[in-house]
């Protein structure tokens, strides 16, 4: 079986082909969109027979995976970060990258990236889109408050209610700042409508997912956190160990272990949306769930500067509980929610939220 490495970009793709003996037999550049890449692979298959294809995870990798998988083709999507760890060279260009991917496919050592289904990718994209809209809404509100503060006006309570916005529109400002205020209020209304439309679709998607309802049995997990957890955990069986979920979402500290173990800030790898939502859920959990609250206080050691450290440390076992529930299909049981203190937890003194 011939092996093909593809370094895919939006306007051009470099190909490198190797025969079953590992000898380079083809190397060329294809210009055009991803449809041209698919057509080139089909042409190569007619000439060379069955293919083993390798490319890196990037925008459009899921669509390519759906188009190229099957029909005499095996496609492997490589994790970009792990590929950089395997190949460290001073010379790097698209042609060399294609050779590296072809070689990994030939030796069968591709560091695989998980490619979810098309429906799951759609759900993830909407979750990320809603989060950007929420951040945009916060930015608009902050700019309105800045205008008020610059004119020594104290923002009243309920500023963002209908009554508060009506009062805001009557505030006397200069011509330039009045224009900014009016446009910001229109932008805020538009963003709110977009958020409502997005949440309506997310609500329909969540209704089709029994796993979302399962995670919502956790007292501190709301629908947005549950749907994000289901979307990004995707296939719970792909995690070899329960603790691997912390590494996947970047909630474990950096580690430098030689003669002495040194722990730094959390790695922050993986999807930041889930990390953000689960951390917020953990903050609610330490208030509502006695077991999570006790774990938080144990890590915090009654030291206020350690509260952020303890919060992130609490989010990690909460993620493990969510993964276990998806693997077993069991509802929330407070009896099994108590995180067990470990040496790693005690060493997280340098961990930054």
Polypeptide structure, described:
This protein is about 55% helix and about 15% strand. It is an alpha/beta fold. It has three domains: about 1-105, Ribonuclease H-like superfamily/Ribonuclease H (Nucleotidyltransferase, domain 5), CATH 3.30.420; about 120-210; about 215-350, no CATH class. Helix 2 links the parallel strand 4 (about 50-55) and strand 5. The longest helix has about 35 residues, at about 120-150. The protein starts with a strand and ends in a 7-residue tail after the last helix.
**What is the element string, with H for helices and E for strands?**
EEEHEHEHHHHHHHHEEHHHH
- Overall average pLDDT: 88
Rg measurement, Å: 25 Å
Low-confidence stretches: 342-353
Write the layout of secondary structure elements.
Elements lengths: L1 E7 L3 E7 L5 E8 L2 H15 L2 E6 L4 H8 L4 E6 L1 H7 L7 H14 L10 H33 L11 H8 L5 H33 L2 H6 L7 H11 L10 H5 L4 E5 L3 E6 L5 H17 L1 H11 L6 H22 L14 H4 L7
Parallel strand pairs: 1-4, 4-5
Antiparallel strand pairs: 1-2, 2-3, 6-7
Q: What are the defining features of this structure?
A:
Nucleotidyltransferase, domain 5, 14 helices, alpha/beta, disordered C terminus, five-stranded mixed sheet, 353 residues, two-stranded antiparallel sheet, globular
